[in-house]
Specification:
By secondary structure, the chain is α/β, with parallel strands linked by helices. It has 17 helices and 17 strands. Residues 477-499 are annotated as: Disordered.
């Protein structure tokens, strides 16, 4: 099935970069023909499909690319481009020869079942593929569990449910065992749905398949409820998560406004990135303070959170605080929402002798477990169909997603190289600050040791980037680390398990 590929050639397959005029850079994705010569091609069945044959210009051109950046200056280079997603004129698989599998890994997210459904239905209705199996229970399901036959009838209404009908797990990635299973079962299309850890595992699977010279495509569908995957516009399930998060914020607002000096604290997902907290707060307009991992803050002293809470209670009689789960800590040992709630209660009880009514709401698992809304269902359909088109066209080692509102095929390494973060120098963060009227803690951050001594002094006007990085979350980390002294350290996880 083709000669084995040496490590040097394999590295080059993962870096298909074409340079063009005026600073044009095309980062292409691998293709089966890169390492298996003389593969036959077949006319795309969509040419005879009554639903698609009537659509003009349905097939993408071989030279169509999508720009990563669309806002440029007059003399700036054209920049990085990716291959446009969509059906090709020719395909590299006959329908009867396709034996596809789908696996879901990592945590739950709205839309997982929709993606599964649309891969199955897309393969069946667009390309006539009848053999699709589900891998039960994440990566380890390849070698330790049975497969689940998937047909259009089986998946017909699963998009109305939360979770994943295939089951999921963290870890379990043993590359050799997985590829052995793929080879033994005669699988030639692998669809992997997961976040950055899962996609790192998908990249290893692709590399091993390439080394063995197998005629197998590996496709990733990027999933993270936190919306922290780079390059793509957003991840599926994010709109649904923001919508559900607003219900928790609304409940906190009702509680806060119903009691004297009422405070509602809502903890939302966002271990490393605060997108859900920021978007939900902006959409709600009931939030008085939004705390995210990217923006430092402190509790005590002039310009601190306690002072701001006291000010808002005097002005409005109530307050709603939204906090992302990753605020102020390097690990997940402490429930930061519960910790902040406890500190607020202690401060106003002991220091201010002031009665407050605080309610803490943590809707994390409710948000993860819901079915996707209409917006995400449409998005998941487009994602799944784009993945199927790419696989049938022989592309491999890629993830699919919208780049500037146009779906593209993106090399694995671009998706896993870093995490997307909220840019607190961007217009949207300024809109958040304007909406909540909260102070920009960034401009007044000070070290924990100097807070008491500097109570009567004016805060600094602005910190440099270096100073900000040094001081970011210093106060909260000091307090949280104190709380963690008697706790067991977290178990180390592999890249695959971290997702």
């Amino acid at each position: 099935m083709g000669s084995l590929v040496d490590s040097f050639a394999l590295h080059n397959l993962n870096k298909k970069i074409v340079m063009g005029d005026n600073g044009y850079v095309f980062e292409d994705v691998p293709h089966l023909s890169d390492y298996i010569p003389s593969l036959p091609t077949y006319p795309n069945p969509l040419k005879k499909n009554p639903s698609y044959s009537v659509v003009n210009q349905y097939f993408v051109d071989e030279d169509d690319t999508v720009a990563q950046n669309i806002v440029v200056r007059k003399n700036s280079p054209r920049g990085i481009h990716f291959r446009r997603a969509g059906p090709s004129q020719d395909v590299y698989f006959k329908a009867d020869d396709v034996n596809a599998c789908i696996v879901t890994c990592g945590g739950l997210c709205p839309g997982l079942n929709t993606v599964i459904r649309e891969i199955v239905c897309g393969l069946y209705s667009m390309y006539g593929v009848a053999r699709v199996m589900g891998i039960d229970g994440g990566y380890r399901g390849f070698y330790s569990k049975n497969t689940i036959p998937l047909t259009p009838n089986v998946v017909n209404d699963i998009h109305k449910r939360g979770g994943t009908i295939l089951g999921s797990s963290r870890g379990g990635h043993v590359t050799k065992k997985i590829v052995d299973s793929i080879q033994d079962r005669g699988i030639n299309q692998v669809y992997i749905i997961g976040g950055d850890g899962t996609l790192k595992g998908a990249s290893l699977i692709f590399e091993e398949i390439t080394r063995r010279g197998l005629n197998v495509v590996v496709v990733g569908i990027p999933k993270t409820i936190d919306n922290d995957i780079p390059v793509i516009d957003k991840s599926f399930g994010f709109d649904s998560a923001v919508e559900e998060a607003q219900r928790a914020i609304s409940a906190a607002h009702v509680e806060a406004t119903s009691f004297e000096n009422g405070i509602g604290v809502v903890k939302l997902m966002g271990r490393d990135s605060g997108f859900i907290a920021m978007y939900a707060s902006l959409a709600s307009r009931d939030v008085d303070c939004c705390l995210i991992p990217e923006s430092c803050f402190y509790l005590e002293g002039r310009g601190g959170l306690f002072e701001y809470i006291e000010q808002r209670l005097k002005e409005n009689g109530h307050m709603v605080i939204v906090v992302a789960e990753g605020v102020g800590q390097d690990d997940e040992q402490v429930d930061v929402g519960l910790w902040i709630s406890t500190r607020i209660k202690e401060h106003f009880s002991k220091e201010k002798k002031m009665m407050i009514n605080l309610k803490y709401i943590d809707p994390t698992y409710m948000i993860r477990a819901i079915a996707s809304n209409a917006s995400d269902n449409m998005y998941c359909t487009h994602l799944a169909q784009s993945a199927v088109h790419g696989a049938m066209a022989g592309y491999t080692g890629f993830t699919v997603g919208p780049v500037n509102n146009t779906h593209a095929y993106i090399p694995f390494d671009r998706i896993t190289e870093k995490q997307n973060k909220v840019d607190i120098t961007d217009m949207m963060w300024a809109q958040l600050l304007s909406s909540t009227n909260q102070p920009s803690f960034l401009s007044t951050a000070r070290s924990a040791d100097n807070i008491e001594a500097n109570k009567d002094e004016e805060p600094p006007i602005q910190l440099s980037d270096e100073e900000t990085n040094q001081l970011s979350f210093l106060t909260t980390r000091v307090d949280i680390n104190e709380a963690n002294k008697n706790k067991e350290p977290p178990t180390e996880l592999s890249d695959g398990e971290t997702n």
